[in-house]
Amino acid sequence: MTQILINGIDMHALRIPAKGLANPDRQHPTVVLVHGFGADSLASFYFTLAAPLSTSGIEVITYDMRGHGRSSRPDTGYRLSDFVADLTGLLDALDVPGPVHLVGNSYGGTVAFSYAVAHPERVASLFLIEAEPASEPWSRKMSILHDKFREFERPDEMDRVAAQLGPYMARLAKVTSQKLQVTTMVRDTFSGPWLSREQVQSVRCPTIEVLGSESDVVDQAELASLLPHCRIVVVPGQRHLLLMNAPHTVLDLVLSWIDEHHSARRSQSEVSPG
Amino acid sequence: MKTSKAAQTPANPAEASATLVFHELSGMVSEMLGEYELGEDFDITADTTFFGDLELESIDLVVLAGHLETPYGTQVNIAEFIAALERDAIIGLTLGRLVDYVVDCLLVTRSLTPATLHTGSTQP
Questions:
Q1: Contact status, residue B23 vs residue B117, Cβ threshold 8 Å
Q2: B57 vs A43: CB contact, 8 Å cut-off?
Q3: CA of A39: which chain B residue's CA is closest?
Q4: What are phi and psi of A195, to 5 degrees?
Q5: ipTM of this model?
Q6: Is A100 exposed, middle or buried (0-12, 13-18, 19+ CB in 10 A)?
Q7: SS3 track for B41-53
Q8: Residue B70's pLDDT is what?
Q9: pLDDT lower than 50: segments of chain B
Q10: Which residues in chain B have their CB less than 8 angstroms from residue A251's CB?
Q11: A with B: how many residue pairs have Cβ under 8 Å apart?
Q12: H/E element holding A138?
């Protein structure tokens, strides 16, 4: 558990070593887990994927994004470019060797995708959970979400959440609402600039999208047209909070994805050294 | 016939350990609640739930998991423990359940007695 100063943010980050390697000489994969917006923190990954990935011989890095979890919460400075700069700064500070596999949940996937646009050579693969690139169509949807988040700032909306989703989710919504009220997070995060179609399609690393069949956050057809080479997996009966509600399914998908792409990278580098 | 049971040591080392681990963990939780300036007189029991009664956020449990490594080492792996639970079990997680897990880890990895658990600090 570490607090590292990144771009003026006191960032809470965890680096969990790869364990149980059959052959420690062979380079292990590194996975970076990027959590979602608002109510989320690295806890979502810490309590689902982090430990099993680590015991499967994968190094795990995860962190609280600015304004989230135990990282500091400045009043302003929450544009997508700030989140991308933080991820860049973190991986620089940790001196991570070689390209990493990025796993992004919801807005964390959006951040991961923009990171891959900015630093294609540093990304081995992208694993997106209910997430989309920050394209113009995405921004139109997000403006609706922006209004939804504003509603969370009203106390009566909290009561509605409590009645519908139970006290735990209501508490989460309340804490999130307090966070949103004291920062420009909502306004900044959904204010662009957006990635052009060309920028989105410049990402050539292996990419997989995991969606809940009952979620309407990501438009599958739109995603398939925007990212023709992206593998899309739909988990039946799940909504947007797929990671929270079906963690074992997500874990199995991540493990087989990393296995597939880490071995592929290794055989490539063995064929053409340097 | 006289029994040779030591006067103040419980017969079952697991029971003795559970008491010690409970005190350790509830101390850490109280400290955390203090940071939030919540009521210091909050009565923490084995049935107290982290997310319900104490209204902690899940990130607080991550921090607590980090604190636990100091006295107990990495064999107590809260991330692994939670990852194996179902969602409702996580939401309803009690201090007692966490104590049981910690004690289980310690019993598996050491020949556990109160003395090995807490050298010097809890001797009768």
A1: no
A2: yes
A3: B57
A4: -80, 135
A5: 0.84
A6: buried
A7: CCCCCCCCECCCC
A8: 85
A9: 1-9, 111, 119-124
A10: 83
A11: 58
A12: helix A136-151
